[in-house]
Amino acid sequence: MTESAARKKLYLASGNPGKLREFQILAAGHALDLELLPGYTTLPEFEEAGPTFAENAAGKALYYSKHCNGMVFADDTGLVVPALGGAPGVLSARYAGFGASSDQRNAKLLSELRGKKDEERVAYFVCVIAAALHGRALVVVSAKVDGEILEAPRGSGGFGYDPVFNFPALGKTFAELSAEEKNRKSHRGKAFRRLMEVLE
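Below the sequence we write its predicted structure tokens.
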């Protein structure tokens, strides 16, 4: 087996098995083995205080790669609504305060957009993924998906802002897509495929 054909192991800088599973599905058929970073929950948490998705993803990958013998990757993902000055943006997970549920974040977003129409409801998802080895950045990739925010949630799949994010190309919210459709069309799917291309 040549070196290029050898399988690469990547550690996800997260303690979230659901997120790992999503990436594992995306990596199916590629020479990549994905695992959660060993001991992630015992390490001091990296503070995602950067003003951009790229700084947060790269900072997280660099930080956790210093505590691991293998290649580490991390993502920073969020929703951007230009009519709200770019919010929720890098604060997407904390938009309704620390510990708030997805339903609470969606309720706040819909409240902020109440009365806004058409172009004012345009939005896009961004995902930036960074990979690092022993404290050295290897690659940073990004992807975005354009859509619009509905006036009420639709669908029971997905997570986060998926139920209010309408994807016009399919006429469905991300919460109405099958896992396969979402992986094919989503910002995270696109960004991860770019990462795989670079690493392979």
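The first helix runs from residue 17 to 27.
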